[in-house]
Amino acid sequence: MKEISNKLIILLGISIASFVFFYLYQFSIPYEDASILFSYAENLANTGIISYFPNGSPAEGATDFLFMIMISILFKLGIPTYFGTILLNFFGALLAIFAFKKLFPKQNWLFLLSTILFLILPQMIAGLLGYGTIFYAGITITLVVFFIQKKTRLFFLFCLLHFLIRPIEGFVAISFCFFYLFKTKSDLSSNQTYKQSFIYFLSPIIVFWIWRTYYFGHLFPLPYYIKTNFEKWLFVFNKDAIYFQYKLLVPFSISLALLLVSSFVFKPKPSLDFLGICFSLIILPILMYSTADLDMNFALRYQTLPFLGVLILGLFCLKESTIFLFLFLITFSIPLIKLSTDQWLRAREFNWNNMYFVGQEIYKSNNGEGRLATTESGILPWQTKMTSIDLWGLNSPNLAQKLPSTEELIAFDPDIIVIHPRNDDIKFLEKHMTEKVARKNWENMTLVAFQYASDTSKYSAFLVPYDLRSYDSNYKHPWFSQILNSRYGIASFSNRKDLFFIKKEFEHYSKTIKILEHYGSTTYKQL
Fold first, then answer.
1. What does the pLDDT read at residue 481?
2. What is this structure's pTM?
3. Which end of the chain lies in a sparser environment, N or C, as judged by fewer CB atoms within 10 Å?
Protein backbone atom coordinates (compact mmCIF):
# COMPACT_ATOMS: atom_id res chain seq x y z
CA MET A 1 0.00 0.00 0.00
CA LYS A 2 2.81 2.38 0.90
CA GLU A 3 4.61 1.58 -2.35
CA ILE A 4 1.44 2.40 -4.30
CA SER A 5 1.12 5.68 -2.40
CA ASN A 6 4.73 6.60 -3.26
CA LYS A 7 4.16 5.90 -6.94
CA LEU A 8 0.94 7.93 -6.99
CA ILE A 9 2.64 10.95 -5.43
CA ILE A 10 5.55 10.74 -7.87
CA LEU A 11 3.06 10.38 -10.73
CA LEU A 12 1.20 13.47 -9.50
CA GLY A 13 4.40 15.53 -9.53
CA ILE A 14 5.29 14.31 -13.04
CA SER A 15 1.76 15.10 -14.24
CA ILE A 16 1.94 18.68 -12.95
CA ALA A 17 5.36 19.17 -14.57
CA SER A 18 4.04 17.70 -17.85
CA PHE A 19 1.10 20.12 -17.84
CA VAL A 20 3.37 23.11 -17.24
CA PHE A 21 5.86 22.30 -19.95
CA PHE A 22 3.95 20.45 -22.64
CA TYR A 23 0.54 22.12 -22.47
CA LEU A 24 1.27 25.73 -21.54
CA TYR A 25 4.25 25.68 -23.92
CA GLN A 26 1.80 25.59 -26.84
CA PHE A 27 0.59 29.09 -25.96
CA SER A 28 4.01 30.65 -25.42
CA ILE A 29 6.88 32.08 -27.41
CA PRO A 30 10.49 32.39 -26.20
CA TYR A 31 11.48 35.44 -24.20
CA GLU A 32 13.80 37.99 -25.85
CA ASP A 33 17.03 37.15 -23.99
CA ALA A 34 16.30 33.42 -23.88
CA SER A 35 16.33 33.24 -27.67
CA ILE A 36 19.95 34.46 -27.76
CA LEU A 37 20.97 30.96 -26.69
CA PHE A 38 18.98 29.47 -29.58
CA SER A 39 21.11 31.33 -32.12
CA TYR A 40 24.29 29.95 -30.58
CA ALA A 41 22.91 26.40 -30.38
CA GLU A 42 21.73 26.37 -34.00
CA ASN A 43 24.93 27.93 -35.32
CA LEU A 44 27.03 25.37 -33.41
CA ALA A 45 24.94 22.53 -34.84
CA ASN A 46 25.08 23.89 -38.39
CA THR A 47 28.64 25.26 -38.60
CA GLY A 48 30.59 23.80 -35.68
CA ILE A 49 31.27 27.35 -34.39
CA ILE A 50 29.84 28.82 -31.18
CA SER A 51 28.82 32.09 -32.82
CA TYR A 52 26.12 34.74 -32.66
CA PHE A 53 25.19 34.48 -36.32
CA PRO A 54 25.82 31.78 -38.97
CA ASN A 55 29.56 31.41 -39.74
CA GLY A 56 30.42 34.29 -37.43
CA SER A 57 33.47 34.52 -35.17
CA PRO A 58 33.37 32.68 -31.82
CA ALA A 59 31.48 34.63 -29.15
CA GLU A 60 30.23 33.77 -25.68
CA GLY A 61 26.95 35.55 -25.19
CA ALA A 62 25.19 32.32 -24.12
CA THR A 63 26.09 32.12 -20.43
CA ASP A 64 24.37 28.72 -19.90
CA PHE A 65 27.22 26.91 -21.62
CA LEU A 66 26.43 23.21 -21.16
CA PHE A 67 22.70 23.88 -21.58
CA MET A 68 23.49 25.49 -24.95
CA ILE A 69 25.61 22.49 -25.99
CA MET A 70 22.78 20.09 -25.14
CA ILE A 71 20.23 22.20 -27.04
CA SER A 72 22.59 22.13 -30.01
CA ILE A 73 22.80 18.32 -29.88
CA LEU A 74 19.00 18.06 -29.76
CA PHE A 75 18.75 20.48 -32.70
CA LYS A 76 21.19 18.31 -34.64
CA LEU A 77 18.83 15.39 -33.99
CA GLY A 78 15.94 17.36 -35.50
CA ILE A 79 14.37 18.87 -32.37
CA PRO A 80 13.65 22.64 -32.65
CA THR A 81 15.68 24.72 -30.19
CA TYR A 82 12.74 26.14 -28.25
CA PHE A 83 11.15 22.73 -27.79
CA GLY A 84 14.60 21.41 -26.85
CA THR A 85 14.65 23.81 -23.88
CA ILE A 86 11.20 22.54 -22.87
CA LEU A 87 12.44 18.93 -22.93
CA LEU A 88 15.55 19.72 -20.88
CA ASN A 89 13.62 21.80 -18.36
CA PHE A 90 11.09 18.99 -18.03
CA PHE A 91 14.00 16.62 -17.39
CA GLY A 92 15.28 19.08 -14.77
CA ALA A 93 11.85 19.06 -13.10
CA LEU A 94 11.87 15.24 -13.02
CA LEU A 95 15.38 15.29 -11.59
CA ALA A 96 14.22 17.66 -8.84
CA ILE A 97 11.19 15.49 -8.06
CA PHE A 98 13.30 12.35 -7.63
CA ALA A 99 15.90 14.31 -5.63
CA PHE A 100 13.17 15.47 -3.24
CA LYS A 101 12.12 11.83 -2.90
CA LYS A 102 15.70 10.99 -1.90
CA LEU A 103 15.64 13.85 0.60
CA PHE A 104 12.35 12.72 2.17
CA PRO A 105 12.28 8.93 1.55
CA LYS A 106 9.79 8.13 4.34
CA GLN A 107 7.81 11.37 4.52
CA ASN A 108 5.45 11.44 1.57
CA TRP A 109 3.72 14.60 2.71
CA LEU A 110 7.03 16.50 2.82
CA PHE A 111 7.95 15.12 -0.58
CA LEU A 112 4.61 16.25 -2.00
CA LEU A 113 4.92 19.70 -0.43
CA SER A 114 8.45 20.21 -1.73
CA THR A 115 7.40 19.12 -5.23
CA ILE A 116 4.38 21.45 -5.34
CA LEU A 117 6.34 24.42 -3.98
CA PHE A 118 9.11 23.76 -6.50
CA LEU A 119 6.65 23.61 -9.40
CA ILE A 120 5.09 26.98 -8.50
CA LEU A 121 8.38 28.87 -8.20
CA PRO A 122 8.44 31.96 -10.46
CA GLN A 123 11.54 30.53 -12.15
CA MET A 124 9.28 27.80 -13.59
CA ILE A 125 7.84 30.51 -15.86
CA ALA A 126 11.33 31.45 -17.05
CA GLY A 127 11.88 27.80 -17.97
CA LEU A 128 8.61 27.78 -19.88
CA LEU A 129 9.76 30.75 -21.99
CA GLY A 130 13.13 29.32 -23.02
CA TYR A 131 15.60 29.88 -20.18
CA GLY A 132 17.40 26.89 -18.63
CA THR A 133 16.34 27.73 -15.06
CA ILE A 134 14.51 24.49 -14.26
CA PHE A 135 17.18 22.25 -15.76
CA TYR A 136 19.71 24.20 -13.68
CA ALA A 137 17.48 23.93 -10.60
CA GLY A 138 17.16 20.15 -11.02
CA ILE A 139 20.95 19.77 -11.16
CA THR A 140 21.27 22.04 -8.10
CA ILE A 141 18.79 20.12 -5.95
CA THR A 142 20.42 16.80 -6.88
CA LEU A 143 23.82 18.27 -5.98
CA VAL A 144 22.46 19.28 -2.56
CA VAL A 145 21.06 15.79 -1.93
CA PHE A 146 24.44 14.19 -2.70
CA PHE A 147 26.08 16.84 -0.48
CA ILE A 148 23.83 15.89 2.45
CA GLN A 149 24.11 12.13 1.84
CA LYS A 150 27.91 12.28 1.31
CA LYS A 151 27.86 10.50 -2.06
CA THR A 152 31.35 11.74 -2.92
CA ARG A 153 31.81 10.80 -6.57
CA LEU A 154 28.29 11.79 -7.59
CA PHE A 155 28.58 15.02 -5.59
CA PHE A 156 31.69 16.17 -7.44
CA LEU A 157 30.26 15.13 -10.81
CA PHE A 158 27.16 17.22 -10.20
CA CYS A 159 29.33 20.11 -9.01
CA LEU A 160 31.06 19.90 -12.39
CA LEU A 161 27.73 19.85 -14.23
CA HIS A 162 26.53 22.80 -12.16
CA PHE A 163 29.67 24.75 -13.01
CA LEU A 164 29.53 23.96 -16.74
CA ILE A 165 25.84 24.79 -17.09
CA ARG A 166 26.37 28.35 -15.83
CA PRO A 167 30.10 29.15 -15.48
CA ILE A 168 29.31 32.75 -14.50
CA GLU A 169 27.92 31.32 -11.21
CA GLY A 170 30.81 28.88 -10.80
CA PHE A 171 31.64 30.14 -7.31
CA VAL A 172 28.55 28.34 -6.02
CA ALA A 173 29.87 24.89 -7.00
CA ILE A 174 33.33 25.80 -5.69
CA SER A 175 31.79 26.90 -2.37
CA PHE A 176 29.94 23.60 -2.03
CA CYS A 177 33.19 21.72 -2.66
CA PHE A 178 34.98 23.58 0.14
CA PHE A 179 32.16 22.82 2.56
CA TYR A 180 32.17 19.18 1.48
CA LEU A 181 35.92 18.79 1.98
CA PHE A 182 35.62 20.35 5.45
CA LYS A 183 32.59 18.17 6.22
CA THR A 184 34.48 14.96 5.36
CA LYS A 185 37.90 15.89 6.76
CA SER A 186 37.50 13.53 9.73
CA ASP A 187 36.52 10.58 7.53
CA LEU A 188 38.98 7.74 7.07
CA SER A 189 38.63 8.26 3.33
CA SER A 190 39.45 12.00 3.38
CA ASN A 191 42.53 11.53 1.16
CA GLN A 192 40.38 9.72 -1.36
CA THR A 193 37.86 12.57 -1.19
CA TYR A 194 40.57 15.12 -2.06
CA LYS A 195 41.69 12.98 -5.00
CA GLN A 196 38.16 12.64 -6.32
CA SER A 197 37.55 16.38 -6.00
CA PHE A 198 40.58 16.96 -8.21
CA ILE A 199 39.70 14.23 -10.71
CA TYR A 200 35.99 14.91 -11.05
CA PHE A 201 35.80 18.66 -10.46
CA LEU A 202 38.91 20.81 -10.15
CA SER A 203 40.99 19.55 -13.08
CA PRO A 204 38.06 19.53 -15.58
CA ILE A 205 37.09 23.14 -14.75
CA ILE A 206 40.71 24.31 -15.08
CA VAL A 207 40.93 22.67 -18.51
CA PHE A 208 37.53 24.10 -19.48
CA TRP A 209 38.43 27.65 -18.40
CA ILE A 210 41.75 27.59 -20.26
CA TRP A 211 39.98 26.28 -23.39
CA ARG A 212 37.11 28.81 -23.30
CA THR A 213 39.51 31.73 -22.67
CA TYR A 214 41.57 30.67 -25.68
CA TYR A 215 38.51 29.94 -27.87
CA PHE A 216 36.56 33.11 -27.11
CA GLY A 217 39.45 35.45 -26.36
CA HIS A 218 37.95 36.75 -23.09
CA LEU A 219 38.59 35.73 -19.50
CA PHE A 220 34.85 35.95 -18.67
CA PRO A 221 31.64 35.54 -20.69
CA LEU A 222 30.58 38.72 -22.52
CA PRO A 223 27.48 39.36 -20.33
CA TYR A 224 29.83 39.69 -17.34
CA TYR A 225 31.36 42.84 -18.85
CA ILE A 226 27.91 44.28 -19.61
CA LYS A 227 26.36 43.51 -16.23
CA THR A 228 29.30 44.97 -14.28
CA ASN A 229 29.32 48.24 -16.23
CA PHE A 230 27.74 50.70 -13.79
CA GLU A 231 28.68 53.30 -11.21
CA LYS A 232 29.93 51.17 -8.33
CA TRP A 233 29.21 51.63 -4.64
CA LEU A 234 32.13 50.65 -2.38
CA PHE A 235 34.04 49.78 -5.58
CA VAL A 236 31.97 46.61 -6.09
CA PHE A 237 28.23 46.84 -5.50
CA ASN A 238 25.27 48.03 -7.53
CA LYS A 239 22.92 50.04 -5.30
CA ASP A 240 19.90 49.25 -7.47
CA ALA A 241 20.64 45.51 -7.30
CA ILE A 242 21.02 45.62 -3.52
CA TYR A 243 17.76 47.52 -3.15
CA PHE A 244 15.92 45.12 -5.48
CA GLN A 245 17.09 42.04 -3.59
CA TYR A 246 16.29 43.70 -0.27
CA LYS A 247 12.72 44.36 -1.46
CA LEU A 248 12.51 40.76 -2.65
CA LEU A 249 13.63 39.38 0.72
CA VAL A 250 11.21 41.46 2.80
CA PRO A 251 8.07 39.35 2.05
CA PHE A 252 10.05 36.24 3.03
CA SER A 253 11.60 37.74 6.17
CA ILE A 254 9.50 35.60 8.54
CA SER A 255 10.45 32.43 6.64
CA LEU A 256 14.12 33.36 6.82
CA ALA A 257 13.83 34.17 10.54
CA LEU A 258 12.29 30.74 11.18
CA LEU A 259 15.27 29.13 9.41
CA LEU A 260 17.77 30.99 11.57
CA VAL A 261 15.90 30.18 14.79
CA SER A 262 15.59 26.51 13.84
CA SER A 263 19.32 26.16 13.24
CA PHE A 264 19.96 27.02 16.90
CA VAL A 265 16.84 25.56 18.59
CA PHE A 266 17.05 21.99 17.35
CA LYS A 267 20.84 21.59 17.52
CA PRO A 268 23.60 23.03 19.73
CA LYS A 269 25.14 24.68 16.71
CA PRO A 270 24.24 24.93 13.02
CA SER A 271 25.21 21.80 11.11
CA LEU A 272 27.64 21.92 8.18
CA ASP A 273 24.73 20.90 5.95
CA PHE A 274 22.81 23.99 7.04
CA LEU A 275 25.83 26.30 6.76
CA GLY A 276 26.90 24.90 3.38
CA ILE A 277 23.44 25.24 1.81
CA CYS A 278 22.76 28.62 3.43
CA PHE A 279 26.05 30.17 2.32
CA SER A 280 26.34 28.51 -1.12
CA LEU A 281 22.72 28.86 -2.27
CA ILE A 282 21.50 31.97 -0.44
CA ILE A 283 24.23 34.31 0.83
CA LEU A 284 26.81 33.87 -1.96
CA PRO A 285 24.38 34.27 -4.92
CA ILE A 286 22.80 37.35 -3.31
CA LEU A 287 26.26 38.89 -2.88
CA MET A 288 27.20 37.94 -6.45
CA TYR A 289 24.12 39.54 -7.96
CA SER A 290 24.53 42.63 -5.79
CA THR A 291 27.60 43.34 -7.94
CA ALA A 292 25.67 43.18 -11.23
CA ASP A 293 23.06 45.02 -13.25
CA LEU A 294 19.82 43.03 -12.83
CA ASP A 295 18.30 44.18 -16.10
CA MET A 296 16.32 41.45 -17.93
CA ASN A 297 15.72 39.59 -14.66
CA PHE A 298 12.66 37.87 -16.13
CA ALA A 299 10.72 35.68 -13.65
CA LEU A 300 13.47 36.38 -11.07
CA ARG A 301 15.78 33.99 -12.91
CA TYR A 302 18.86 35.51 -11.28
CA GLN A 303 17.43 34.55 -7.89
CA THR A 304 16.91 30.86 -8.74
CA LEU A 305 19.51 29.64 -6.24
CA PRO A 306 18.31 31.65 -3.19
CA PHE A 307 14.74 30.47 -3.78
CA LEU A 308 15.94 26.86 -3.92
CA GLY A 309 18.09 27.37 -0.83
CA VAL A 310 15.21 28.70 1.26
CA LEU A 311 12.88 25.94 0.01
CA ILE A 312 15.32 23.11 0.76
CA LEU A 313 16.43 24.45 4.13
CA GLY A 314 12.87 25.20 5.22
CA LEU A 315 11.59 21.69 4.62
CA PHE A 316 14.76 19.81 5.56
CA CYS A 317 15.65 21.71 8.74
CA LEU A 318 12.13 22.29 10.06
CA LYS A 319 10.78 18.78 9.56
CA GLU A 320 11.50 18.06 13.24
CA SER A 321 8.95 20.63 14.39
CA THR A 322 5.37 20.58 13.08
CA ILE A 323 4.64 24.09 14.37
CA PHE A 324 7.79 25.65 12.85
CA LEU A 325 7.21 23.82 9.57
CA PHE A 326 3.58 24.92 9.38
CA LEU A 327 4.54 28.55 10.01
CA PHE A 328 7.28 28.31 7.42
CA LEU A 329 4.92 26.89 4.79
CA ILE A 330 2.39 29.68 5.38
CA THR A 331 4.91 32.53 5.41
CA PHE A 332 6.81 31.14 2.39
CA SER A 333 3.83 30.09 0.26
CA ILE A 334 1.75 33.28 0.37
CA PRO A 335 4.38 35.69 -1.04
CA LEU A 336 5.60 32.93 -3.38
CA ILE A 337 2.16 32.50 -4.96
CA LYS A 338 1.80 36.27 -5.37
CA LEU A 339 5.24 36.56 -6.98
CA SER A 340 4.59 33.67 -9.36
CA THR A 341 1.19 35.06 -10.34
CA ASP A 342 2.69 38.47 -11.10
CA GLN A 343 5.42 36.88 -13.22
CA TRP A 344 2.89 34.72 -15.06
CA LEU A 345 0.85 37.79 -16.01
CA ARG A 346 4.04 39.45 -17.22
CA ALA A 347 4.88 36.36 -19.27
CA ARG A 348 1.47 36.41 -20.91
CA GLU A 349 2.08 39.99 -22.03
CA PHE A 350 5.20 38.87 -23.90
CA ASN A 351 3.14 36.38 -25.89
CA TRP A 352 2.08 39.19 -28.24
CA ASN A 353 5.66 40.15 -29.16
CA ASN A 354 5.43 41.47 -32.71
CA MET A 355 9.19 41.09 -33.27
CA TYR A 356 8.85 37.30 -33.17
CA PHE A 357 6.55 37.28 -36.18
CA VAL A 358 8.36 40.10 -38.02
CA GLY A 359 11.64 38.17 -37.74
CA GLN A 360 10.06 35.01 -39.11
CA GLU A 361 8.68 36.82 -42.15
CA ILE A 362 11.96 38.62 -42.87
CA TYR A 363 13.77 35.27 -42.95
CA LYS A 364 11.17 33.85 -45.36
CA SER A 365 11.71 36.83 -47.66
CA ASN A 366 15.53 37.01 -47.69
CA ASN A 367 16.69 33.56 -46.47
CA GLY A 368 19.11 35.13 -44.00
CA GLU A 369 20.79 37.45 -46.51
CA GLY A 370 21.88 40.92 -45.40
CA ARG A 371 23.29 42.60 -42.29
CA LEU A 372 21.40 43.45 -39.13
CA ALA A 373 22.49 45.90 -36.40
CA THR A 374 20.14 45.67 -33.45
CA THR A 375 19.60 46.55 -29.82
CA GLU A 376 17.10 43.66 -29.67
CA SER A 377 19.76 40.98 -29.57
CA GLY A 378 17.60 37.87 -29.14
CA ILE A 379 14.45 37.33 -31.19
CA LEU A 380 15.41 39.18 -34.38
CA PRO A 381 18.91 37.69 -34.99
CA TRP A 382 17.59 34.22 -34.14
CA GLN A 383 14.58 34.45 -36.44
CA THR A 384 16.15 36.35 -39.36
CA LYS A 385 19.47 34.39 -39.39
CA MET A 386 21.11 37.54 -40.77
CA THR A 387 24.75 38.51 -40.16
CA SER A 388 24.27 40.54 -36.99
CA ILE A 389 25.93 42.82 -34.49
CA ASP A 390 24.51 43.33 -31.02
CA LEU A 391 24.82 47.07 -30.45
CA TRP A 392 24.68 46.57 -26.67
CA GLY A 393 27.64 44.17 -26.79
CA LEU A 394 26.22 41.06 -25.11
CA ASN A 395 27.15 39.04 -28.18
CA SER A 396 29.62 41.24 -30.07
CA PRO A 397 33.04 41.12 -28.33
CA ASN A 398 34.29 44.43 -29.76
CA LEU A 399 31.30 46.25 -28.21
CA ALA A 400 31.20 44.50 -24.83
CA GLN A 401 32.99 47.30 -23.00
CA LYS A 402 32.33 50.33 -25.20
CA LEU A 403 29.77 52.07 -27.37
CA PRO A 404 29.57 51.33 -31.11
CA SER A 405 31.38 53.98 -33.12
CA THR A 406 30.26 55.61 -36.35
CA GLU A 407 33.33 54.11 -38.03
CA GLU A 408 32.34 50.59 -36.93
CA LEU A 409 28.80 51.08 -38.23
CA ILE A 410 30.12 52.40 -41.54
CA ALA A 411 32.41 49.36 -41.84
CA PHE A 412 29.58 46.96 -40.98
CA ASP A 413 27.17 48.78 -43.33
CA PRO A 414 23.92 47.29 -41.95
CA ASP A 415 20.93 46.71 -44.21
CA ILE A 416 18.55 46.87 -41.26
CA ILE A 417 19.01 48.80 -38.01
CA VAL A 418 16.59 48.16 -35.14
CA ILE A 419 16.55 50.51 -32.15
CA HIS A 420 14.55 50.13 -28.95
CA PRO A 421 14.79 53.33 -26.89
CA ARG A 422 14.70 52.69 -23.16
CA ASN A 423 11.32 53.58 -21.71
CA ASP A 424 10.02 53.83 -25.28
CA ASP A 425 11.27 57.42 -25.40
CA ILE A 426 11.98 58.26 -29.04
CA LYS A 427 11.81 61.95 -28.15
CA PHE A 428 15.02 61.44 -26.14
CA LEU A 429 16.81 60.41 -29.34
CA GLU A 430 15.43 63.37 -31.26
CA LYS A 431 16.33 65.86 -28.53
CA HIS A 432 19.92 64.69 -28.10
CA MET A 433 20.63 63.76 -31.69
CA THR A 434 23.52 66.20 -32.21
CA GLU A 435 25.25 65.48 -28.89
CA LYS A 436 28.55 63.64 -28.60
CA VAL A 437 28.43 60.72 -26.17
CA ALA A 438 31.11 58.70 -24.42
CA ARG A 439 29.83 56.73 -21.44
CA LYS A 440 28.41 53.30 -22.19
CA ASN A 441 24.77 53.06 -21.22
CA TRP A 442 21.59 52.08 -23.01
CA GLU A 443 20.50 55.63 -23.87
CA ASN A 444 23.87 56.51 -25.41
CA MET A 445 24.05 53.22 -27.30
CA THR A 446 20.67 53.85 -28.96
CA LEU A 447 21.64 57.46 -29.61
CA VAL A 448 24.80 56.47 -31.51
CA ALA A 449 22.80 54.12 -33.75
CA PHE A 450 20.08 56.74 -34.24
CA GLN A 451 22.62 59.41 -35.20
CA TYR A 452 24.26 57.12 -37.73
CA ALA A 453 20.98 56.09 -39.37
CA SER A 454 19.54 59.62 -39.34
CA ASP A 455 22.62 61.42 -40.66
CA THR A 456 22.40 59.73 -44.03
CA SER A 457 19.77 59.45 -46.72
CA LYS A 458 20.55 55.75 -47.18
CA TYR A 459 17.73 54.58 -44.90
CA SER A 460 13.97 54.72 -44.69
CA ALA A 461 12.63 54.76 -41.14
CA PHE A 462 9.56 53.06 -39.67
CA LEU A 463 7.90 52.78 -36.29
CA VAL A 464 6.93 49.15 -35.71
CA PRO A 465 4.52 48.21 -32.87
CA TYR A 466 5.97 45.83 -30.33
CA ASP A 467 2.54 44.46 -29.33
CA LEU A 468 0.31 42.63 -31.80
CA ARG A 469 -2.80 43.75 -29.95
CA SER A 470 -2.06 47.42 -30.57
CA TYR A 471 -3.14 47.09 -34.21
CA ASP A 472 -4.57 43.57 -34.72
CA SER A 473 -7.99 43.40 -33.07
CA ASN A 474 -8.58 39.94 -34.58
CA TYR A 475 -5.76 38.32 -32.62
CA LYS A 476 -7.29 35.65 -30.37
CA HIS A 477 -6.14 35.14 -26.80
CA PRO A 478 -5.77 31.61 -25.40
CA TRP A 479 -8.82 30.67 -23.33
CA PHE A 480 -7.10 31.08 -19.95
CA SER A 481 -5.79 34.51 -20.94
CA GLN A 482 -9.34 35.53 -21.87
CA ILE A 483 -10.43 34.60 -18.34
CA LEU A 484 -7.56 36.58 -16.80
CA ASN A 485 -8.35 39.52 -19.05
CA SER A 486 -12.00 39.58 -18.01
CA ARG A 487 -11.36 39.04 -14.28
CA TYR A 488 -8.15 40.94 -13.67
CA GLY A 489 -8.11 43.52 -16.44
CA ILE A 490 -4.80 42.67 -18.09
CA ALA A 491 -6.10 43.24 -21.62
CA SER A 492 -4.25 46.53 -21.95
CA PHE A 493 -1.46 46.42 -24.51
CA SER A 494 1.98 47.98 -24.77
CA ASN A 495 2.27 51.19 -26.78
CA ARG A 496 5.96 50.59 -27.35
CA LYS A 497 7.24 51.13 -30.88
CA ASP A 498 10.65 50.14 -32.18
CA LEU A 499 12.53 52.06 -34.85
CA PHE A 500 13.40 50.11 -37.99
CA PHE A 501 15.82 51.71 -40.47
CA ILE A 502 15.86 49.86 -43.83
CA LYS A 503 18.65 50.62 -46.29
CA LYS A 504 17.19 51.73 -49.61
CA GLU A 505 19.83 49.78 -51.54
CA PHE A 506 19.04 46.57 -49.64
CA GLU A 507 18.29 43.83 -52.15
CA HIS A 508 15.14 42.88 -50.25
CA TYR A 509 14.07 46.45 -49.45
CA SER A 510 10.58 46.30 -51.01
CA LYS A 511 9.71 42.93 -49.46
CA THR A 512 10.94 44.06 -46.04
CA ILE A 513 8.83 47.24 -46.20
CA LYS A 514 5.73 45.19 -47.05
CA ILE A 515 6.39 42.91 -44.07
CA LEU A 516 6.66 45.87 -41.72
CA GLU A 517 3.47 47.38 -43.13
CA HIS A 518 1.67 44.06 -42.62
CA TYR A 519 2.72 44.15 -38.97
CA GLY A 520 1.38 47.63 -38.32
CA SER A 521 4.33 49.92 -39.12
CA THR A 522 4.01 53.62 -39.80
CA THR A 523 6.55 55.87 -41.51
CA TYR A 524 8.82 57.73 -39.10
CA LYS A 525 9.56 61.31 -40.09
CA GLN A 526 13.22 62.01 -39.32
CA LEU A 527 14.56 65.41 -38.32
1. 52
2. 0.91
3. N
